Amino acid sequence: MAKKMKATCKSHPDIAFIKYWGKADPKTRIPQNNSISMGLSNLYSVCTIEFGPSFNQDTIEFLNEKIVKEEELQRIIMVLDRVRKLAKTNLRAKVVTKNSFPKGAGIASSGSGLSAVTMAACWALRLKLSRIELSKLARLASGTACRRIIDGFVEWHKGTNSNNSYSVQLFPPDYWQIADIVVIVAETMKKVRSTKGHSLADTSPFQKVRLKNIPAKIKAIKVAMKKKDFTVFGQILESEALNFHTIALTSQPPILYWEGTTMEIMKRVQEWRDQGLESYFTIDAGPTVHIICQPKDVQRLKKRLKTISGIQRLSVNYPSIGARVINQHLF
Ligand code: DP6
C-alpha cells in the first residue's frame, strides 16, 4: 500500500522585540522594516494535513475553537493552493489544527498556525524545501509565520521582493536564557486584526519617522543581544513597543489595542523596576502583555502579578525552536 500523504507540524508563536508594522507590498507581505523576535517555548500550534484522492474538497477543522472566521479558512486554503502548485498536484486535503492559547489576543497565532500549516502541507506532499524557501512560502500566508520557521532569536530581512524577504537565525535558542511571562488579560478576539492594522500604518504621521529610526534600533538591539546586556536590550524593546503603539494610536482611524489591565501591568512593571526588580514590557497587536525578564526573577514577578486583578492567564516562556515535523497526528 502506498504511504499516506500525511504530516503533522508543531510551531511556536513569537514575541517581536522590533516589530513588523506596515507593508511595502501587502500582496506578497513584504514588510516596510526588518523585525527581530524570539520563539515562545510553552505556547504552540499543531497542524495535521493529509492529501488524498478520497477527499472531494478541502476540509478544515479547528479543535477547541468556538468561532472560526471565513477569512481564516481562506488563508489556509491559499496555503494549500500554493503548495499544490509547487508539488504539481490537484489532490484535496483534510486539515485539523489547534492552538494551545487563545487566538487574536495579541499572541501571534497567525504566525505559529500558518507556519505549521505551510510546513505540514509541504511535508505531506513530500516537498523538501530548505528553511529559507519555507520561510518565504510561510511569509505569503502571514508575515510573522516567516520568522516561525527558524529556531531561537530571529531576524526577518525585509528584502525588496518575494525572493529575498525571509528570516534568518541570529542566535540559537540556548544562546541566552531570557524569559517572556505572557500575561493574557482578555480571551476575546481583537477588534482590529493585524492585517488591517498594517494597512493603516502609513496614515500615521509618525510612521515615516519610525521607519527612518529602525535601522539604528536594529543595530543597537543586536549589539545588546551579542553582549547579553539585558538592561540595554530591555530598554530598547520597551521603547520600541511604545513606538509601535504610537503608530497604531495615531493611525486613521486610530487603533487602541490595550485594555485597562494592560495599562495597569505596564505601570507596575516600570514601578517594580524602579524598586530593583528588573523587567521590561512589550505588547503586540492586542491587550496581552509580554514581560521580558531574566529567569532568576520569574517567580518574584509571578507573585507580584497575582496582586493585579483582571489577569486571565499567565504563561512563562523561554526561547524556542522553530516549526518542525512531529509524529503525533491530530487524526
Ligand atoms: C504586531 O503577521 O499578524 O505582531 O502578515 O498580515 O498576517 P500579517 O500580519 P501579522 O503581524 C503581526 C505584527 C505584530 C508585530 C510583530 O510580531 O512583529
Could you walk me through the main structural features you see in this protein, from its secondary elements to its overall organization?
The structure is a single chain. The protein is α+β, with helices and mostly antiparallel strands. The protein has two domains: 5-173 and 320-326, Ribosomal Protein S5, domain 2, CATH 3.30.230; 179-317, GHMP kinase, C-terminal domain (Alpha-Beta Plaits), CATH 3.30.70.890. 35% of the residues lie in helices and 23% in strands. The protein is built from eight helices and 15 strands. The protein has helices at residues 70-87, 109-124, 131-141, 194-200, 207-227, 230-249, 260-274, 298-305, and strands at residues 5-11, 14-18, 23-25, 30-31, 35-39, 45-52, 59-62, 92-99, 153-157, 166-171, 179-184, 279-282, 289-293, 313-317, 324-326. The protein has a five-stranded mixed beta sheet. A four-stranded antiparallel beta sheet has the order 2-5-9-10. Strand 12 and strand 13 (289-293) form a beta hairpin. Helix 1 runs parallel beside helix 2 (109-124), helix 1 runs antiparallel to helix 3 and helix 2 (109-124) crosses helix 3. It is globular, with a radius of gyration of 19 Å. It starts with a strand and ends in a 5-residue tail after the last strand. 45% of the residues are buried. The structure holds ligand DP6. Ligand DP6 binds at residues 16, 19-21, 29, 35, 108, 110-111, 142-144, 194-195, 198, 284-285.
